[in-house]
Specification:
The chain is built from two helices and six strands, in the order αβββαβββ. The protein is α+β, with helices and mostly antiparallel strands.
């Protein structure tokens, strides 16, 4: 039941976001520009980066998977070469888990976001 409520909430947020974009820009071309730091946000003209290959890392030594459950949430920029940069921990699960998650992301392969045919940081 809880999973159903969470999924419904996520779908509702996506629907509201798409509705808001259409109501603000109905049938109109949107010219997306990068932020002050040169990074674009995915949107009508900029595609989101795509995860091509995930690198799995071993569970931290000395900790049983049955003893500890949780998640680390990361935010990052995928640069024009598909390399993750500016990695930030948004939700920590403890330093050892955060370090392992960051290591996995750094070794994973991404296809960069694009503005038209040009690869851009997103």
């Amino acid at each position: 039941m809880r999973t159903s409520k969470v999924l419904t909430s996520i779908l509702s947020l996506v629907s509201v976001n798409l509705w808001a974009q259409e109501s603000v820009f109905p049938g109109r071309q949107v010219d997306q520009a990068p932020g002050k730091d040169g990074v674009y946000y995915a949107g009508p003209e900029v595609t989101a980066p795509r995860l091509v290959r995930t690198v799995y890392v071993p569970y931290p030594e000395g900790i049983s998977g049955k003893e500890v459950q949780g998640m680390t949430v990361l935010a990052m920029v995928i640069d024009a070469d598909g390399i993750p940069t500016q990695i930030q921990v948004l939700h920590t699960h403890g330093q050892i888990f955060d370090q392992v998650a960051i290591a996995a992301v750094k070794e994973s392969k991404f296809e960069p976001g694009k503005l038209g045919e040009k690869s851009v940081p997103v």
